[in-house]
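Hello everyone,

My group is preparing for a crystallization screen and wants a predicted model to guide construct design. The compound we'll soak is NAP. Before spending weeks at the bench, it would help to have a computed complex in hand. I've included the protein sequence and the ligand's SMILES below. Output in structure-token form would be ideal because that's what our pipeline reads.
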Amino acid sequence: MLNAVGQAQHILVLGGTSEIGLAIAQELTSRGGNPVVTLAARENSPRIDAAAETLRGAGASQIRLVNFDALDFDSHPAVIDAAFAEQDVDVAVVAFGTLGDQEELWQNQAKAVASAQTNYTAPVSVGVLLGQAMRKQGHGTIIAMSSVAGTKVRRSNFVYGSAKAGMDGFYLQLGEALRKDGVKVTVVRPGQVRTKMTAGMKEAPLTVNKEDVAEAAVDAALKGERFVFVHKLFWPVSVALQLIPAPIMRKLSF
Ligand SMILES: NC(=O)c1ccc[n+]([C@@H]2O[C@H](COP(=O)([O-])OP(=O)(O)OC[C@H]3O[C@@H](n4cnc5c(N)ncnc54)[C@H](OP(=O)(O)O)[C@@H]3O)[C@@H](O)[C@H]2O)c1
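Reply:
Good plan to model first. Here are the tokens for the complex, ready for your pipeline.
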């Protein structure tokens, strides 16, 4: 069980090579308890060995690997069964995702579908399964990686943003549905984060590091918060953006 100072016995990272997912697992591991960490990642990812090494270095007592392809929906029940088979999962981090070329995505049907499936359908698929598995064990915390891109869907990234809006709403209400079962859900909404997902992109205002996301996510989860904007200014900014009329939004460059 995740205790009051953030120590867990078993952490599951879905998207086990995600820089943010790993930073959250590291943040939890740094709080002590030498947890077991299960990395659910594509078995052909070139980043698995480095991810496991990072967590061993942070104090994980054991690294387990589970083959996970977000787009292979039929395999998800077996993935979650495998993750929960040997011991309860205290914290599950839903961290996989793709950004892609947003101008290409809205004009390319196959790529838009793949983006929507990775960023919305797959988080729903694993969310349902995590919810049922944690409900059965009677405890658990889900940390779901959303984005400010989902709080106001904008012209500049609306394929990605609309999927994040959907998964954000799904996980917020999954938390409500599981409340009486002792399962908590925290939705994490950073703006731009310095990871490989954004490498080479122009840096947006209020960009943060993955360690900032990890600290905010773990603190919010421990406080039982339903959501957290990693940079505090993004909450008022998101509210203000809802009020800006479309003709004015059209003139803004983001
Ligand atoms: N970076 C940002 O600016 C930012 C901002 C807000 C929210 N977020 C969200 O935070 C989460 C983590 O992002 P990040 O910055 O840590 O990005 P990242 O380092 O690029 O990690 C994304 C991970 O998703 C995995 N993935 C992609 N498609 C997959 C699939 N079909 N099956 C299984 N795994 C798949 C990739 O695994 P492989 O190793 O196999 O490629 C990759 O390691 C994402 O949901 C992202 O949308 C990121």
